[in-house]
Every structure is written in C-alpha cells, then in structure tokens.
Amino acid sequence: MKVVILCGGKGTRMMPTTEELPKPLIHIGNRPILWHIMKLYAKHGHKDFILLTGFRADMIEDYFSKPENVEPDWKITFLDTGVNASKGERLMALNNRITDENFLLAYGDDLCSVNINDVIHIHEKNNKMVTITTVRLASPFGVVEMAEDGVITKFREKPILDYWISGGYIVANSKIIDMIKPGMDETDIFEELAAQGQVQALKHYGFWKTMNTVKDLQDLNDLWEKGELQKELGIENHAK
Known about the structure:
- This protein has a single domain, classed as Spore Coat Polysaccharide Biosynthesis Protein SpsA, Chain A, CATH 3.90.550.10.
- The two termini are 28 Å apart.
- The chain has 8 helices and 14 strands.
- Strands 1, 4, 5, 6, 8, 11, 12 and 13 form an 8-stranded mixed sheet that branches. Strands 2-3 form a two-stranded antiparallel sheet. A two-stranded antiparallel sheet has the order 7-14.
- By secondary structure, it is of the alpha/beta class.
- It is globular and about 60 Å long.
C-alpha cells in the first residue's frame, strides 16, 4: 500500500525558520521530521512513498535522493504539485498513480505512535471510504475550575480535553481522488463523506504531536534530547 505524504506547504506559522527551509526538512534530533514520519511507516512494513511537494520541492527531492539519507528498501516518488496548490489539489496529482483500492495518507508535520496496521485493520473491517487516526485535544493553556460563586478551586496545567481531533495517519479509498475538484481541500471531501457516514475514526490514546509553530519544534527537540521522543515512537538515534 502506497504512503502518500502531504509536504508542499509554506509553513508560514513557523516563519522565519521556513523562509528558506521547507518545514518537512526541519530537524527533530538528528533527522528531518519527514524522515521520522517515513521511518514510522517503514517500521510497520510500508515503504513505498509518494511525496507531494510544493514549496522548496527541489530541496526535499535533493535530500531524499541521496543514498545516505534513506533506507535502502525505501521507494520514493516525488510529485511537485506547485507552491500554491491546496491539499486537495495536491491529491489530484495522484490520478492514475494509485492502483490499489486503498492508500495511506499522512501530513508532513505530525509524529504519532499509532500502529498504522491497526488503522488499516479498522478501515477494512468497517468498509468505510476514509479512516482517520483521532487524538484527544490538549489545551495550549492552563485552565481553572471554579465553584458556582466564582471561587477558584483548582488549577490544571494544559490538560487533555474531552474532544477528539484528526491526528492524520489516514487510510483512504482511492476513489476519493476522483471526488476532488480544483480549489478543494482534503477536509472538504472528508466532510462530504462524513455526512454520508463514510468516515471511521480510530481513537489513539498514545503519543501524538504536531509541529505547527516554533514552540512545537522546541518541545519536540526537548523531548528528543531527553530520549523521551525516541521511547514514545519506538525509534532509535540514527547517525546524521
């Protein structure tokens, strides 16, 4: 099953870091975050990658075209989908390139400890068009609990909230590619399918963290320096 990774955005929320360097090539520890994502898929036996690039596409292709930067059994196809394409338009570039019934879909800035084969199992068991790994929302702020009279009774520092969000690590039926029209995002298709009861969730209670901001980058590298990220993801320190 092919692994399609969306890695063409400009990463504007991480400026100025991403002015010259595309976000997927920003290092977490000793490798780019995109490399770690690919390693997670490869760990579960999925090594046939399609990278949907855009911003600084040449830099991503240059990095992953060097033998020292990839595993010998990885197969990588690069599709430059343009700098200003929406995520949906990037997926349109897959037309005629996905021959299997399903494909794996990931974003180039999420790290997650989910076993992707469990997501595949749920997808095939429920026979839906899309299956999404969902994770609980962590509050970016501390919250307070209070009594009815307004007296604060407890402080909670950045708690996990009882809401679920998409964590990426998706399995999708290849038919969705034909459903996408210019200007659409992938979430537009997911919303249409959800209204039809065709989107399944796998609730993941383990590690997940996205890299949207410079603060996220700092947090991930702090976890790496402490050895906690490697433990959470089941990955090793690899030479540069």
